[in-house]
Amino acid sequence: MIGDVPLAPPVSPWFHVGVRKLAVMCVGTLGLYQVYWFYEQWRHAAAQDEEDIWPWARAVFGVLFCFPLFDRMTEWARDRGVEIKDSALLLSAAFVVFTFAQRLPGAWALVTLLTALPLLAAQARVNAAPAMRELPPDLRNDRLSPVNLIGVLLGAFAIWLFVSGMREAQRGQGGTGVPSRQSAPARQPASALPARSL
Fold it and tell me: H helices of 103-180, where?
């Protein structure tokens, strides 16, 4: 609800977005699009079951609410004849693991971009249902909009800054991370020292 005007109920059973577009947006915005994706999917789920839930809260805390969402999407698609090979539990476990990968050191933190994979699998299964395939072209959301492109460009710039920073850090450590040692002057043997007069 915005002010006193309620939001219009969703037209499609689930938020429709092309799988390729979803992949580009998740990676290109460094995961920010995922929050929007969770919000839209929960908004559609609430409209289906006429539930009084807060989609925005479930989007912000996606790690906690990913399993119930993936489970709903999986069961909805399976009930409509979509063949599904992996479980909602597997998708949820992958999402949680990849989310916490951002705590890995250095460039390994980029593994967290793989959080897009469970979302792609969940989206693909609902997109395969007849109710989604028969949506009119203006509701299919397969192409990048100008706003989407701006988000992707900003994300690409952020990735470039991150990679550049990692390279500069490696150069500062001599490329190996081990500081170079300066050779100490050789010590002369005692016999070679000049005799001191008494």
Answer: 116-127, 130-133, 146-172
Position 175 confidence tier, pLDDT thresholds 50, 70, 90: low
Q: What pLDDT was estimated at residue 5?
A: 43
Determine the 3-state secondary structure of 167 from DSSP.
Answer: helix
Q: Are 122 and 91 in contact (CB under 8 A)?
A: yes
Q: Quick count: other Cβ atoms within 10 Å of Cβ 159?
A: 15
The rounded Cα 10 to chain-centroid distance in angstroms is 25
Report the alpha-carbon distance of residue 129 to residue 17 in Å, rounded. 13
Q: What is the DSSP letter of 73?
A: H
Q: What is the pLDDT of residues 2-49, one digit of tens each?
A: 444 455 556 688 999 999 999 999 999 988 999 999 999 999 999 988
- Quote the distance between the C-alpha of residue 15 and its chain's center: 18
Question: Bridge-partner residues for 2, per DSSP?
Answer: 5
Residues 115, 31 contacting (CB under 8 angstroms): yes
Tokens found for residue 138:
């203006």
**Residue 179, pLDDT above cutoff 60:** no
User: Contact 118/92 with Cβ under 8 angstroms?
Assistant: yes
Indicate if the pLDDT at residue 81 is higher than 80: yes
CB 143 within 8 A of CB 17: no
Query: For residue 193, what are its two tokens?
Result: 């020292």
Question: What is the three-class DSSP state of 54?
Answer: coil
